[in-house]
Records
---
Amino acid sequence: MSLPSKAFQRWLHGVAPGVSTSDVCRASGVKRTTLAQQMVRGKVAESSLVLISRALELNPVSALASFDSYADLRGTPVAPTDAELISQIASMDLLRAVIARNDPGAPQLFELAAVPHETSVRNWVEAIDDGELRHRVSHATGIAPQNFSAHLTANRMPPELAIATAREAGVGPAGGLIASGLVSEEEAGWPIGARRAALDRLGTADLVSLAGDRLQALGKSLHRQEHERDRTERIWENLG
Amino acid sequence: MTAVLPWLTLFVCVAMTAVRVPSAIRGQNRTMFFLFALLSVDILLSIREPYLAVDAVLGGINLANLLLRFLLYGTFLLLGVRTAAAFGSPAGMRAIRGPLGIAVLAVVTVLTAWIFFSMDTRGSTTGLSGLSQTPALESYAALGRLYPGYVAACLLPGIWQAVRGSGPALLRLASGTLFLGFCLLLLSQGFPLVPESAAWLRPAINYSAALASALGLGGIWLSKSLARRRSHG
């Protein structure tokens, strides 16, 4: 789940000939020791590549696309579906939109919080899931379903898995990279204001149901957290 | 290694007791202070030199060993009740403090005393290792392992849940250490199966169990202190 060092070195040499590794690290904020370690192990993290390409003023998605395992990213960016766009709107913004639609006196123009939000990975997968998606991803990549779920719960997703998930769902390849926070919407070629436009296109009934679903999920996760906190407190109370 | 282990365990237990003195004076969780003090005495009494000294005062018939057994039962009752409450296992609580748990403790205690007084125990010797190995002595030793093992078995499921949960990392690590200590106590039930050539394994397992449990409890205290310090800025 990473880039081979040889290919990475070839890429770096191609885009920044004559620039030393330490200069690259200084400019990008990638720790030298970290990068060195990744090179030695033969696996350079995609996040390092993204930081370095940003520092070199290159598009990180195109940089990723130059590696064979990210060939899906080559070519013109595929436009996101409305469901994908809405999935990348934070739950609190959806609630604001519900209030704005139903109360003319409420603020109508509010800035949408930046991607990714707190449950962006799970919401993205739910937005592109036809009911069989997890099954197909698990079949195609060999990842165990419970590990896939663990990623969703932790709100992260390894880039290669994100690409495979998008491929199995038949949507644009970059959606998962955006949802997991590896690259930004602009970098992946999502049009500016696309999320807002999708929100405006969403009917009020659908918006309210969706916001309701998000609230319910939030309630569940808060319950879990409180339960865990109570458990910790009880241990400390009795044995601490 | 096996010579250092008892003293290391004693040191850890005494250190934990000392750490708890200030909060015990403030009246916070005194039970844990007593528990660590008890544990320290247990370990002290199982080391050769202090054992011989105490037993000499008690008449040189190994009464100190019986005393150690009773202290250990008390330690495990206290530890069991506290740990079951901490890890929120009502079943474990019932099994330790309920009628069944009290019955197990009573039977073990009475049998321990009865077997002890039915044996010829003259001649001070740590762990009664110098006495002739009779079936009575074997069952006396087995009883001494049984109650701690029983308590450990009641607590393991609850602790495991905390290890697998998503609490603070240090708390989970400490719970895991406590879990390990209790597993060793269960393992010690199989001591009769240990061949004589590997006799060193028995004290090694016993002290490792005590050490892991003490470190686990210490880790829980540390995780609490760190969390409180962080939340108070």
---
Amino acid sequence: MINFSYTRAGGVAEAVREKSKANGAGRFIAGGTNLVDLLKENVERPTRIIDITRLPLTTVEEGPNGGLRLGALVSNADTAYHPEVQKRYPALARAILAGASPQLRNMATNGGNLLQRTRCYYFYDVALPCNKRVPGSGCPAIDGQNRVCGVLGTSEACIATHPSDMCVALAALEAVIRVSGPNGERTIPIADFHRLPGSTPHLETTLAADEIITAIDLPKNPYAEHSVYTKVRDRASYAFALVSVAALLELDGDTIKSARLALGGVAHKPWRLPEAEARLVGKTATKENFLPVAEALMKGATGYGHNTFKIELGKRAVVRALQLAAKGTAAVRGVNGQVAAAESVA
Amino acid sequence: MTTTEYLGKPTSRVDGPAKVTGEAKYAAEFNVPNLAYGYIVSSGVTRGTIKSINAAEVEKIPGVLKVLTHENAPKTASLDRSHRDQLASTHGSPFRPLYQAELQHSLQPVALVVAETFEAARYAASLVQVEYEIAPHETDLHGSRAKAHPPKDSRTGYVPPPKKPRGTPEEAFEKAPFKVEAEYYQPAEHHNPMENFASTCVYGEDGKLTIYQKTQGVQNCQEYICSVFGLSKDEVQVISPFMGGGFGAGLRPTHELYLSVLAATALKRSVRVSMTRQQMFSFSHRPETIQDFKLAATPDGLLDSVTHTAIQESSRYEEFLETVVNWSGLVYTCPNVRLDHQLVYLDLASPADMRAPGAVTGLYGFECAIDELAYQAKLDPLAFRLKNYSEKDQNLDKLYSSKELREAYRQASEKFGWDQRPLDPRSTRRGSDLIGWGMATGCWEAMQGKAAAKAVLTPDGKLVVSSATSDIGTGTYTVMTMIAAEFSGVPIENVSFELGDSSMVYSPVEGGSWTVSSVGSAVKTVCEELKARLFKLAGKMDGAPLGDAKVEDVTFDQGEMRVTKNPVRNVTYAEALQANGLDKLELDTTELPQLVKQMTHGVYSHSAVFVEVAVDEDLGTIHVTRVVSAIAGGRILNPKTARSQIMGAIVWGISMALEEESMLDHQFGRFMNHNYAEYHVPVNADIHDIEVIFVPEHDDVVNPLGAKGLGEIGIVGVAAAVTNAVWHATGKRVRSLPVTLDKLL
């Protein structure tokens, strides 16, 4: 951990100003659940830390057109347990509760969750090369221990994944990120918020260095009756997803009117393929109709050895999630949103 | 003479309140004035040479006192012999921190930054730059297995496999109708205790060192430091009252101890050095192991041939030796057996003993292969084991001192409902889950070592018993207090037990499930001697309160002696001391193992483990929904902590089966998942019903207490039982650990 200066911002404009002064070496701190770990490991070495916990971004409010606005500083736990989120955005509630631990969710904020950094082993080990940490140094994960790495949208420079559960649900819900910068406010659709690694894996989002996330807008959700978040992982809790799926269906009887699918654990950002979702429209909700969609979603996937299984697992998880979504949100009673042993499709 | 007042009764931990209130202090929590802090800089390279370190530059950083490297570190003893602790191999060259420019393994310490504050040391350490000349390394056991060779060295506790095969295993294998030929694999695993290793070395005004150290053996550390730094025992005191988990990682002196003493003696100042979580992956692990089996059975299901070869990694600088294959010649009756243990030297830190070392590895593979053979022979796995039940230790040709394994099988299988198990796999479903049942046998040695205990009784009726053992969280304080109360006749509330100080009377390291057996027996003896002395004191008292009663006519309890048949004749211990003008009654004794009895018997504890798993057929996720384990472990002294001990071991067995793996990157020769987020151990949600049964066993061979020790036996066999259950659920034999979901897709 290196020495840094600490400032507490009193308002959004002040926070933005303080960040601008740091020439890219500044970091906002809210819950600190990711940043402090990275500081201790010397992965993040900011010279200036700006505490934003006092900013007035702590409410969940009704949004325009029947949507909901989540303040950037609302904790993950308060978001997940908020009655309106539970009722209207159950996939989001479950995705959040599938992540981390109660202690972490109590501290972690919605804005911070969007900016979580990868858990790739090489990113965390400063003795080793990593293009994301030190651009141009190389990506040993490609030939190394890559069980946690991605299979979709990867590049020669980086095969890391985005670790968030919450963002996978946000992608399926087509959330909009509200940000504020020196030139005022703007909005970024979630699909454009995170980047693929390409040749610049150190650039993870489209947020400018002097911008701050103020809120997440959730559009009106027609999928609440058939929303699930299926997370497959190496232990039953407190593990990052090997593969996760947010599956949202709008049904008319057994017929699918529209569908949304987003995958976690497989790419540098939540993975969506609207054309695959479109193939479900007008079909009946059966395993036979889900399989080609699962195939389409994983099309072009590349395995790197230890993680090659994710390609097959991804397909199976998509089918499972769609089966569960078809059964209905209320029928799936996972423990804290995870796939419980009792949560069956037979 | 004495009734059982305490032993065998569930007793809460005497140190529980201290632990939950934070009063219990651990090695990194002992604060002294003017303490300096050392921060270890670890190597990013596996093999090669250090060309330069910018130590002088870093020393200019405010708050930094010294940057120690191989170039400027004070010299310590030159001979390897001086660096070998009690558990080192006999001829190895133990790792010496900051000793040479040549690197031996990744993450080894290459510098120690000592500063006025921990934060300054950590910050400065982040600025240390090491230039290396990199040389090729070898860390791939599979890739190097052609270099496997028999061990050349020896080590305390290591039993080499029998030199000659028993019978004719190859011939028997060739002609047998039922055969299994299989290779099993277990990755390296790290101990990962919650408490990181730490050493607070207090530099006294007289230059004497008082070291608060996380260790399983204070006297092993004291001897090591004296030997390495050329100090006498009265110059070095090692203290370790509490330990946040050891599991074997703290049996040998760890390198932060060496470094804290190095810095303290160099600076003539107190220094603390603690490891980071990443550095906890830098010094000891359960060795990666490949095991080959050839097993065969006769037409009527009798085990007829066992060939078991284990290939394990060792460091290059000293052989790590654990007993892996011998169990396969022991657990079942078999006329034809060949056992072979081989090593491959790799550029890794020396492995170390880790809970049930050797047995947990060997019996994982063997008990899975036995399951395969039973199915070949179309026999229920339990029926097969009963058919081949071992009535004597065939490796040593000795009868068992006691063995209630048959009863353990019976009680556990009944509780589990094993008789309902379909023979074939993939027979049971629950929703989208496949349900499977598996079982395995566990075995561990019941050892006793030399140990001493000291008793001090004061006129207020209070008894303090002590020995330089440790309590690694297993309940040593509690069980020793119980034993002392039981055999001294002092009420338990007036008894305390002290440990974890090298100045106390001799104790071996706490490990191998032998502390109750060794130290407990010494405590029993010293308390019995205490009673004899008290009886003599009573005889010298005016008025002879016990009359002409002989010692065998007297009851000792509630802190008093009284004539059993005439209780009005009595005297308290306190009165006996006071009347004789004593301000205390102090005695110590050294207890030696009952070698003659033990040498003529096979002395082991056993377990029968039954497991149910639910496997999601599509996703491969595995839940261990039920475990029943019956333990035949001799006399159970404290059923409460014993049950906790076994439950914890079962959880670890599940962990080994499904989650644990230290992932090596051979590009760098480095363990990559070096933190608690990525090195998986079970969370609460992974653990469901666990039932522990203790099967009564009488044994007067193992030690005077009849207790066999429970530290290891609970974990042995669990990984095999889980793996066998996964096969029964899915029909898929996964022959490598951990059984992760990708292996089932």
